[in-house]
Each structure stands twice: as structure tokens, then as C-alpha cells.
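Data availability excerpt. The first of two example chains:
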Amino acid sequence: MERITRIRERLQAEGADVFLVSSAVNRRYLTGFTGSAGLVWISGTRQALLTDFRYVEQVKAECPDWELIQIENYNESLKKLIEDDGVKKIAFEKDYVTVKQIEEWREKLSPQFLGVSGWAEELRMIKSEAEIENIKRAAKIADDAFAELLPKIRSGVTELDIALELEFLMRKRGASAMSFDPIVASGPRSALPHARPTDRVFSVGDFVVFDFGCVVNGYCSDMTRTIVIGEPEEQHLLIYDLVLKAQLTSLEAVGPGKTGAEIDAIARDIIGEMGYGEYFGHGLGHSLGLEVHESPRLSKTDQTVLQPGMLVTVEPGVYIPGFGGVRIEDLVLVTEGGHEVLSSTFKELYVVG
């Protein structure tokens, strides 16, 4: 498997004997195991999954190419592996191991422990065809659910009512979970980029921001649309058109060879030139996959060069305190020739009469 080969190349470069994986997401990515407990052991000659009695049959079904090591005590099992394989140096995921855990390993186990970061995450940046297919399915479920939801939106319903209906519609279509708790934020609350639904009632004059996604076979989607309740006023149209222009222009720039910082700057410059730069305070986008926020990012500081197989969201926003906000987000696949937009919902301003 290419993923394991790449990990072994990192081991060789670092002079380590074993890569020990603690992250649940990276464990799933490398092995296919969806259970909630276990360690992954990758050496030059061995790939093993350590877990307890609860998951033995699950590992056999999900990870047929992996050695199963049933454990009762992780430290004792690790000690035996270390002795059997003559291990001198273990690379571990320092972003996911507690200080208490590493102190315990160093106290009870003999090898040198080297904290490393990003070994699996860098592999996860470029998606396989199977991963892309799952994400496309999740994106379609979200698009279809939103299309069914729109006619149900009206003045007088609450954010919570609509958020629950949106989740139901996605689950009804086959989503196993939500990528995150759906954001439905209306009126002045739409100026809060990560607002959570409340019992606030939709009223005439409200912008309503919907940010949502779902999970298919472990893989996430993410999309944002903004609508208005009642006939839009001049300020509604000005802000919406500005965000839409920034979104369309920066999205068009997505392609191999570009950096996240370059694409972020396109949207930021458009919004800034109109005097709204202070109201766009977050990055333009992020990747996703097994998690809803992954690398690379479209941000001021991310110099990652986009490659075919990477996915990014493009989601500029303008948020005016006391009035409301607009965010428009598409999910985009980087291709050899440019990009493919995976979100199919229209982006013209939808007006609820």
C-alpha cells in the first residue's frame, strides 16, 4: 500500500524503527479500522493494529491486511513488540499524545521516543478516487436536502426548527452523521460566523446563513448558502453581490500550482477594495476529508502548493454587527486542468416572500 510505503520512507529518513499512531482519524486512514480504540504499529517489516477484545472481529473484517494484536495492557504489548523487533527508536504523533502518556512510555519502555507531526496528515491532503467519490456523495446529499428545505423556509419559523429539518433531510438520504452541527443563523446573528441555531424566529429583513454538511463512509462535505427573508434592501444586495463576486473570482483561480495564500488574497482584495475588509476576518477556505477541517488551507499564511486530488472550500464572508452577514461556500476539487466544483446549489440570492 502506497500510504505505508510513504510512512516507511519517513521512518528511514528520521532514523526511527517504528511509527506509533494514536490519532483515531489517522488510524482509520492508514488501516481502515473504524473502532474507537487502538494503536497502529508500522515498522520496516511489520504493520500491526493493537486493540482489545471488543474490536477483534471488527479488525478482522475491516483490516484483513493488518496483523491483529489483541491487548489487555497497552504498555505490556508494546514492550513485547519492542523486544521482539529490537526497536531502538519510536516516532510518535506528538499532536495527539498527552504529556502524561509520553512520560509513562519513557518511564516504562526502553526505546527513544521522537515526537513527529504531520506524517499521516500530509498524505491525507491528496485524496484517492474512493475518497473523492465518498465526498461527492456527501456533497450531493447536502445539495438535495437543501433543495427540499428551501420551500419550507418562511417568516415565523425558528432557527432550531429549520436546523433539525435540514439534518433530518440529510440523514433520510443516507448520511451517517453531520460533518458538524448545522449553522442556521438569522438576522443580526448571521453576522456571527459560527453561530449555533437558537429559538430565534425568522423575520422580514433577515439574512439567514446556512452552513452544513454530512458524512458518507466517514467522509465529510461542507457548503454555505445565504438567503433573505422578504424583499431585499439596498444594503442586502450590496453585501451579497460583493461576497458573491469575491467567491466566484477566487474560486475561478483554484488550480494546481497556486498557493492557498494567493487564492485567499484574491477574495480579500475584492472585499477590501469596497471598504469591507475589516468584516472578513477568517480564512477563505480549508480542506476536508475524514475531518471537516484539514490541510491545506486557503489563508493568508498557507504556502502549500495545490495539487490535483486536493479539495478546498471557497467561502468568503462579510459580517456586519447589528445587521447581519453573508457567506457563500462551495466545495472544490483540484484537477489536472483546474478544478471541479462539487457543490451544485445555485448561488443567486434566494428571496423568501
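And the second chain:
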Amino acid sequence: MSVVEVVGLTVVRGGTTVIDGLDLAIGPGVTGLLGPSGCGKSTLLRSIVGVQRVAAGAVTVLGEPAGSAPLRDRVGYQTQSSSVYDDLTVLENLRFFARVLALPRAAAEDALASVDLTGHRDAVVGRLSGGQRSRVGLAVALLGSPALLVLDEPTVGLDPVLRRDLWALFHRIAEAGTAVLVSSHVMDEAERCDALLLMREGAIIAHGTPAEIKAAQGVADVESAFLALVERRESA
């Protein structure tokens, strides 16, 4: 069963067509959306969340139109920019956003525990490390136990150890039943995904498991597969 279905999606921004007639289906587990900066990843994620104006096509999430009222507490979204308040503690941030979403007080505690930040509940967010701040933003996105979690470049700027820990957390979240869609421009993160979407210039140029994508191109790593796909498209 597909968690997300995209049919004929076209997005125009600033007079430029960023995505043109895209068809796509995304299932459960951890799906990575990988491609260079500026290829349209954030635009696609915004379309899935329902905050992007689209020129044509349809996006269905969990059986409902993207951005519709029934999805408000079923889709969690973490943007590239920080969505938390630096002058509040971790717990104060979570309680604030829980009230905004009309969730019970216990939801903040549940989200805190889900990202292993219980020991930092009273820490002021502005004094946390980059990895801890990312976890706070992730906790906000997890409020209400969404069925789909959309993460836009959540590991950017983090060191390899923190990136490893966050990816392990993404998989624990997926194992608990939440589908995770995470974007990145770092190709070495591809092997951490259950399924991959490789994006280039607004188009999905490959979709499958890392093993399937590598085997199709006869290469040993996803970056080489991506380059082979790009070269094939440019020579066609």
C-alpha cells in the first residue's frame, strides 16, 4: 500500500517549471530523497505536505488530498530552517507546539522520549549542540504520533557520528509504524535507506532499493549509479 501517491505533479516557481508531470508512489519504511541542491527536493516535499502551490496534478497522502484537514495530525514535517524557539527549554517548546495542535499535555513527554532527549528536557534550546537541536525539531514533528514523517535535510551540517545516530533514530521511528521520507544531498547516506528516490532537475531518475539501483547500473555504490544515470540522460 502506498503512503504517498503523486500523479502528474507540475510546480512552477518564479516563472520556471521546477517539477513537470511527476508520477510517484512512496511506501512504508525509510525512503530517502537524494539529489543535488536545487534539484527540486524541497519543492516535492512541500507538495507532499500540502504547503506548495501546484500548477497541475494531484498528491494523495494516506488516502487524502495533500494538505487537507484530515491530515493535520497525521503528517509531521521538519523543514531545513529551525522551527523551535531558542529561548525556551526543550520541554517548553514541545508543550507550546502540543497546545497549538490541541494535543494532550502527555504528547510533549511522549515526543521527548521518542528522540532520547528526556535528559535534556530543561535545557534551553539555544545552548544545545547541533545534533540535539535537530532532535528537538524532530520531536516537534513527531507530536501526535504522525503516520508520515517528512524531513527536509535533517542531517545537514552534522558530523558523521551525529548523522549515524539520527539515521538509526529514523529507522526506529519507521519500525514503530511511521513512514519516514527524508531528503539529503549527501550520497553516502543512500545506503541507510530502505528505498531511494534519486532526483535530478525536477525528475525522479531512479526509484528502488539501494541494491536494485546499483545492480541496474552495474556499479558498487549509489553515487556511481547516480552519475551513470545522469550521463545516460545527457547523452540521450
